[in-house]
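Colleagues,

For the teaching module next term, I've prepared a clean inverse folding example: a structure given as tokens, and then the sequence designed for it. I'd like students to try predicting residues themselves before seeing the answer, so please don't circulate the second half yet.
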């Protein structure tokens, strides 16, 4: 049976940050889960606060090499139905970036591999179904990939759950709480005309049943999302491109921007969970949760990717200290996350409360 200092459940952003941190300290670490390959999905913004984390993880040069674009302009029609520009060209921590998610996650995967970290690309459902149990000072993991091959038996001194919102291990020990059931209807639009240079910007627009988000991606596609509650979305929207086009046409600013730059909806959107959820405690005896497994925030925060990097690194630092007999860094990590959740919930209420013109509509009244 193989024994590792740390086992990381999940191969995404938080898991990669955790694995790089542990490997960088000279400890043995294993990643359990497929390589992070986002494909087309919402979540493209990396805030300026991420720059220091990227440097700590040895990733700054990889990310600076592109093809990501600097996020230097955001337009919003939020508190009032008037479009206002918010510039972020200058920032003490450096620029924020709109990412090519595929390139970004491939860079993380490559960095983990180059650090000599082994990976078992076994579905996370296998880890959840076949068992993770505590045996004295060790975790015993039984992994089954659904084939006729014999199960894999592993052991680790510390476990980091970076399995996303599913939190396949951590939710067995602590309760997961939920502030809302926000969903994202997501689409990625190709430009249909070649003689217009699209504005490299992000646009946010409040609407009666939710809010719209559009951003120009590094590959010149337009990322488009509408955030609402499941009961406020038209039934069958994920199979109805005509209804999706009609919803966009009802906007004041988003439709105008996309149309002027030659972007057209060609297919129905894909739906994805986007609600605010969190664990009541993000760490315990011999384990910690990181990324969305620990806390997933409303995309209005624009800090999801940065939070994943931060949590993966800090959870791993707590694990390393715990292995050396010091529990204080792990306790500070969990306490900091608790406070971050409280602050976000307060800020969330205030930001949604700015939109008074829709205050009587269910989506908005639920958040005020």
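(Answer key — instructors only)
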């Amino acid at each position: 049976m193989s024994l590792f200092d740390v086992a990381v459940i999940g191969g995404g952003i938080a898991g990669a940050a955790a694995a790089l941190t542990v490997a960088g300290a000279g400890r043995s670490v294993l990643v359990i889960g497929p390589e992070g390959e986002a494909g087309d999905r919402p979540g493209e913004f990396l805030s300026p606060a991420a720059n220091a984390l990227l440097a700590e993880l040895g990733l700054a040069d990889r990310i600076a090499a592109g093809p990501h674009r600097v996020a230097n302009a955001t337009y919003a029609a939020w508190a009032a139905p008037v479009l206002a520009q918010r510039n972020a060209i200058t920032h003490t921590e450096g620029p924020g970036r709109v990412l090519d998610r595929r390139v970004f996650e491939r860079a993380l995967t490559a960095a983990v591999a180059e650090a000599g970290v082994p990976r078992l690309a076994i579905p996370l459902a296998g880890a959840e179904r076949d068992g993770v149990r505590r045996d004295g000072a060790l975790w015993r993991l039984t992994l089954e990939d659904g084939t006729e091959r014999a199960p894999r038996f592993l052991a680790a001194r510390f476990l980091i759950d970076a399995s996303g919102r599913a939190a396949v291990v951590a939710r067995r020990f602590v309760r997961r709480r939920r502030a809302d059931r926000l969903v994202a209807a997501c689409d990625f639009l190709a430009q249909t005309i070649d003689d217009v240079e699209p504005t490299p910007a992000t646009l946010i627009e409040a609407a009666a049943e939710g809010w719209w988000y559009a951003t120009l991606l590094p590959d010149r596609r337009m990322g488009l999302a509408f955030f609402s509650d499941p009961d406020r979305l038209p039934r069958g929207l994920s199979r109805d491109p005509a209804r999706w086009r009609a919803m966009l046409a009802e906007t004041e600013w988003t439709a105008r921007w996309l149309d002027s730059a030659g972007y057209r909806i060609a297919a129905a959107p894909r739906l994805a969970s986007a609600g605010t959820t969190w664990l009541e405690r993000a760490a315990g005896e011999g384990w910690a949760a990181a990324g969305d497994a620990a806390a997933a925030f409303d995309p209005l925060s624009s800090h999801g990717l940065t939070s994943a990097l931060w949590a993966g690194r800090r959870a791993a630092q707590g694990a390393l200290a715990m292995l050396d007999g010091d529990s204080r860094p792990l306790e500070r990590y969990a306490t900091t996350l608790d406070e971050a959740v409280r602050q976000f919930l307060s800020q969330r209420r205030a930001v949604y409360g700015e939109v008074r013109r829709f205050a009587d509509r269910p989506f908005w009244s639920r958040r005020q």
